Amino acid sequence: MKKVAVINSSETCQTRIVAIKDAMEILSGKWKFHIIGTLIHGEKLRFMELLREVDGIGAKMLSKELQDLEMNHLVSRTVLNTKPATVEYQITDFGKSLAPIIDEIAKWGIAYRNFVYTNS
Amino acid sequence: MKKVAVINSSETCQTRIVAIKDAMEILSGKWKFHIIGTLIHGEKLRFMELLREVDGIGAKMLSKELQDLEMNHLVSRTVLNTKPATVEYQITDFGKSLAPIIDEIAKWGIAYRNFVYTNS
DNA sequence: CAGGATCCTTTACGATACTG
DNA sequence: CAGTATCGTAAAGGATCCTG
């Protein structure tokens, strides 16, 4: 009984560590959260629109990050047959499940500012 | 009235972006969450203990990350006058405010696994 | 318009050896 | 014990030019 409990708790802990590693691997980098945040906000954006809205990013980075996000099922990509071709990016339903994380991070970032400001 | 609303929402949006940038700057890297998680779990750990508990990290990285975290008020460092000197690291109260973020990320990491597993 | 190719700079990270 | 110094590699990020 005790043994089972220990094993379970150990497994839970390992699971958490692996889960955090997974998540960070997918979400790491300078731009992921900005892109996702932008897409959650304004569904269906074209490449150029994202390039403008995600402040400071370059075309290469945006392209690469979008591919990553698409590969991980967080963003969908639709090519419209116009000419010249336009492409629409959209957050997936699963991608939307990141909203709570982004909210928490934003909240904490604000709290951090207040804290540093108050204690300096 | 409309104008005020727009300005407010724009300011709020900017604030969020900056907050996320702040937070990610402080929390980015391969090890921050693991170290913080470990310290939240088991208050008062020495350098060597952390080196053992944070799986895979090297002394140089640990040292540098701890300095970062201390500088950002997330971790406190206490030198005990024993010989040879031992040092205790401890999460600060403010550092503990990261717990919700870590929880959300861990939750999401698990959900991600399930999602990918189910859709593949 | 949407991006790939190329080249370059800068960080991140890691192994090893060494010191108070 | 708790680090620092040094060196080296790999990955991230960016500027510019080019193409269907």
The pair of chains with the biggest contact is: A-B, 38 and 38 residues
Order of helices and strands of chain A: HHEHHEEHH
Q: CATH homologous superfamily of chain A, by name?
A: Winged helix-like DNA-binding domain superfamily/Winged helix DNA-binding domain
- Category from helices, strands and their pairing of chain A: mainly alpha
Instruction: Estimate the strand proportion of chain A.
Output: 5-15%
Instruction: Write the CATH architecture name of chain A.
Output: Orthogonal Bundle
* Low-pLDDT regions of chain A: 1-6
Specify the number of helices of chain A: 6
**Outline of chain A:** globular
- State the total count of DSSP E strands of chain A: 3
Fraction of residues in H or I helices of chain A: 55-70%
CATH class of chain A: Mainly Alpha
The overall number of domains of chain A is 1
Oligomer classification: homodimer
Measured distance between first and last alpha carbons of chain A? 51 Å
What attributes does this structure have?
homodimer, HTH_HxlR (chains A, B), DNA-binding, 67% helix, 120 residues, Arc Repressor Mutant, subunit A, transcription (chains A, B), disordered N terminus, 6 helices, WH_DNA-bd_sf (chains A, B), mainly alpha
Give your account of this protein's structure.
Two copies of one chain form a homodimer. By secondary structure, chain A is mainly α. Chain A has a single domain, classed as Orthogonal Bundle (Arc Repressor Mutant, subunit A). Helices cover 67% and strands 12% of the residues of chain A. Chain A has six helices and three strands. A three-stranded antiparallel sheet of chain A has the order 1-3-2. The first copy, chain A, starts with a helix and ends with a helix. In chain A, 23% of the residues are buried. The N terminus of chain A is likely disordered. Chains A and B meet through α1, α2 and α6 of A and α1, α2 and α6 of B. The first copy, chain A, binds a DNA duplex (20 and 20 nucleotides) through α3 and α4.
